[in-house]
User: Which sequence fits this backbone?
């Protein structure tokens, strides 16, 4: 296939068909429900981190970077022996947090931010493609299926058109439809040598935050894409070759609806667990209970003495006593990894882990 000139945005076609509008209403409803519930949760960090680690893992799995939670746990807690795949997943999570901070601070999503995020994901400073030769191949027969535009100047032109479309305040077209258009366009521009899929999936959630459809970055399509992977590739291709926008947009909108529903369930479970454990600790260990302690316990799947010491501003010895009391009562399970003792929040870990089995 020869390299062709990519059309710029907006697409020269009516996107809001009847079918699209019907699905759009459902997707917006599901998303609003998720946003509404998430808004009521006091500690957003807990929520975001738990959802994020799951997303980082799924999104990386699309690229065949397969990890298990046990492996990830090692990578997050900086223990030795984590696989390189787990480290990549942790990079992805770092990129997501950074993107979220940037969008919140600047109320914009720019090319430079996108380049920065891809750099974090890939741990590379290569930036936008300069050399020709990047092509997408069919995994099975190695045939070239798509040759993205080449030449740094051309890629920058396309990216700046995309940047304008992302940040434009036009209210004519629903942001969820625009999200589908943005994701398609980003993937066909394919601005980087690698990491375009993962960067594109981060852009999706950042766009929802930018448009204030979500306050926290907690909606990720990667699980949905994994389950519907062949449609994903086929539709990306068919927008280009057959101008099949409608099917693509409905595909993405359906993903948003399904994922918003799933995420709502997950968030409810996490929140219920935080409340339950909080009540139990208050009852069984009233001397050490504090809201801040609960937050620290749910900050990650695990904690360490030093986090409790600094987080609660207590001595190392007291912190160590707190943790062993919590372990004795069955709230935490500790393990010596390297020189350090790591305390796992078993219940949080189990909630997120069951998702792995259900996929
Ligand atoms: N025919 C196609 N046309 C346009 N884009 C495509 C096509 N097929 C796949 N893509 C996009 O290219 C991405 C893969 O590109 P790349 O390897 O740079 O990204 P990645 O993040 O490393 O991989 P992955 O998305 O598999 O995790 C896919 O996720 C998809 O979004
Ligand atoms: Mg790749």
Assistant:
């Amino acid at each position: 296939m020869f390299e062709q000139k990519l059309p710029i945005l907006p697409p020269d076609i009516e996107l809001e068909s009847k079918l699209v509008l019907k699905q759009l209403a459902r997707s917006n409803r599901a998303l609003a429900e998720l946003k509404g519930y998430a808004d009521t949760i006091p500690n957003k960090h807990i929520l975001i981190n738990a959802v994020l680690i799951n997303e980082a893992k799924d999104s990386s799995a699309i690229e065949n970077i397969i990890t298990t939670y046990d492996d990830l746990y090692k990578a997050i807690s900086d223990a030795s022996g984590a696989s390189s795949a787990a480290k990549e997943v942790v990079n992805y999570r770092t990129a997501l947090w950074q993107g979220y901070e940037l969008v919140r601070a600047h109320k914009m999503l720019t090319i430079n931010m996108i380049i920065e995020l891809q750099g974090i994901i890939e741990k590379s400073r290569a930036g936008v493609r300069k050399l020709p030769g990047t092509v997408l191949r069919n995994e099975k027969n190695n045939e070239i299926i798509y040759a993205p535009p080449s030449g740094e100047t051309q890629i920058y032109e396309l990216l700046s058109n995309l940047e304008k479309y992302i940040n434009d305040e036009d209210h004519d077209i629903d942001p969820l439809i625009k999200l589908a258009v943005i994701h398609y366009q980003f993937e066909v521009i394919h601005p980087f040598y690698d990491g375009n899929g993962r960067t594109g999936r981060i852009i999706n959630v950042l766009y929802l935050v930018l448009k204030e459809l979500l306050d926290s970055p907690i909606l990720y399509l990667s699980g949905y894409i994994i389950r519907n992977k062949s449609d994903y590739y086929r539709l990306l291709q068919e927008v280009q070759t057959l101008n099949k926008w409608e099917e693509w947009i409905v595909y993405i909108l359906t993903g948003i609806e399904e994922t918003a529903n799933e995420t709502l369930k997950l968030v409810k479970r996490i929140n219920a667990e935080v409340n339950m454990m909080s009540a139990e600790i208050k009852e069984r260990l009233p001397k050490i209970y504090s809201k801040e302690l609960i937050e620290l316990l749910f900050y990650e799947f695990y904690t360490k003495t030093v986090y409790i010491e600094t987080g609660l501003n207590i001595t190392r010895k007291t912190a160590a006593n707190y943790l062993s009391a919590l372990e004795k009562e069955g709230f935490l399970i500790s393990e010596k990894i390297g020189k350090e003792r790591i305390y796992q929040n078993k219940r949080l870990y189990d909630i997120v882990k069951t998702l792995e089995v259900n996929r």
